[in-house]
Design goal:
The protein has 518 residues and is an alpha+beta fold. 62% of the residues lie in helices and 13% in strands.
Amino acid sequence: MSLRRRTSLLFLVTLAIVAVSVIVLARSFEREVDRQGIITDQIDPAARAATELRSANARTAAGIAQYVVTGDSDELALAETSRGESDRLLRSLEDLVAGESALELAVSTVAQAHSAWTTDEIDPILTEMKGGRTREAAAKLDAPAFQARFDELDVATDGVARAIDSARAQGLSDLRGITRDLGIALGIAAILAIGIATFSMLALRAWILSPLDRVRADLREAALLPSHETPIERTGPTEIAEVAGDAEALRRALLREIDAAMAARVALEHGAPAVVALRDAMVPPAPTLPDGFAVFGTTRAAAGVIAGDWWDAIPLASGGLGLVIADVSGHDLDAGVMAVGLRSVFRTGLLSGLEPHAVMELAASELRPTGKAVTAFIAVIGPDSGVLRWANAGHHPPLLLGADQTNRWCNTTGPLLSPLGGTWRTDEAPFTPGDMCFACTDGLIESLDVEGVDLGPQGLLALIEGLPASERDDPSELAERIISRARLRACSWNEDDITVLAFGSRAGRSAGSAAVRQ
C-alpha cells in the first residue's frame, strides 16, 4: 500500500473516531443540560408549590373557622386571600408538572379534592354566614364531612409533595448517571486521542523513518565500499520503494561507468580504435521484439572492453524469437575476434530457420583450429507454441523459472563447440506466459567468495529464490539483482568475462521490450 493511501486511510479513521466521539459527548452533554433544566425549572418549583399549597389550604380552613366563631370580617378576608393563594398555587402546580404523567395524575387528584372541599363545604358555610345564620354555619363547620373533605385534600396534597420529591430524587440520580457517562466518554475520548497519537508515531516510524533508514544504510554502504557493490533494496511504501529503485538504477549506471572506465584503460594498451570497433560489432542491435517477449542482456568484459562472451536476441520471420549466449575460452583480443565471427554464424543459422542443434553443427563446421573452445546455448521460442526449444553445447545450464514456482535446468545436449565437431540434439520444455529463463557464462557461476567457494548452480538458484516475486518477473531486475548480489559475495571480480541473459514470455500482453547493456 502506498504512503499516500496509508495516510489517507489513517486520516479517515481518525476523522471517524473524532466525529463519533464528538457526537457521543454532545448527546451526553445535551441530556445532562435537559435533565438539569427539568430539575431547575420544573421539579424544584413544583416541590415548593406543593408545600405552599398545603400551608395555604390550612390557612384557609383556619380563617373560615375563626370567621364562623367571631364573625370578624378581617378573618373572612384572610380566609379569602388564602383561598385565592390555593387556587393560584394549584394552577401553577398543574403547569409545572405538565408532561410528567405520574405527577399530572397526582395533581389532578388534588384539584378534584380541592374543588370538592371549597364547593361542597366552604361555599355553603360562607352562604350561611352572609345570611346571618351563624348557628347553621357553625353546624356545617363542625360536621364530620367538612373535616373529612379537608383531610382528603391534605392527604392528596401530601401525596403530590412526596411524588415530586421522588421525581426530584430520581432526576438527581439520572443527572449523576449522565454526569458519570459524560466523564467516561471524556476518558474514552482522551484514551482514543492518546492511542491515535501513539499509533501515528509508530506508523511514522514503521512507514517512513525505518524504510528511509534502511535505504540510507544501503546508500552509505554502497558509497563507502570501494567496489560500490551493495545493492539498494526496494523497501517500504510505494513512494519510498520507488526512490530506492531510482537510487539502485543510479548505482548500477555509475558502476557500469566505473567498469567501462577501467576497461577503457586496458583498451588503450590494446589499441583503442581496433578494440572499439570490435566491441561495437559485438553489441546486439536493439531489436523490435515480437509481441509478448521481454529480454535483457549484459556483458562485462574482464580485460579491456573486448569480451569472449556475448549474447544475442534475433526476431525470426516466423514471429518467434531466437536467443543466444556463448563463451569463447579466454578473454583477450583473439577471443573477441572469434566471438565476432561466431555471432554472425549463429544469427545466419537462426534467421535461416534452422533448429538449434543444426545451428550448433553449422557453427562447429566454421571453427578453425585455434586452440579455443566455445560453449553456447541457443533457444528458439515460437510465437504461439508455448514451447522453448534449445540446444546446449557444454554451456552452464540456464535455469527455467516457471510461473507456477517450479524450476528446471536446460542441461547440455552435446559437447562444447570445437574443430573436432560433434553431435547435438534439440530439447524442449513448456514456456508459458509468466515463465522466465536466466542464462549466464562461467564468469558469474565460477566467482569465488572469501573461502574460495564458487557460486555454482545451487548458489545461483538460492540468489534467484531470495528475490521478491516482482523482481523475478522482470528480466532487467532479475539480471541486475543477481549480478549485484554475486558481485557483493565475490572476494574478487572481473577475473573472467561475465554475460547474463534473461528473457520471459508475456503472451497476450503489450508489445515486448528489450534492453541492451554492454
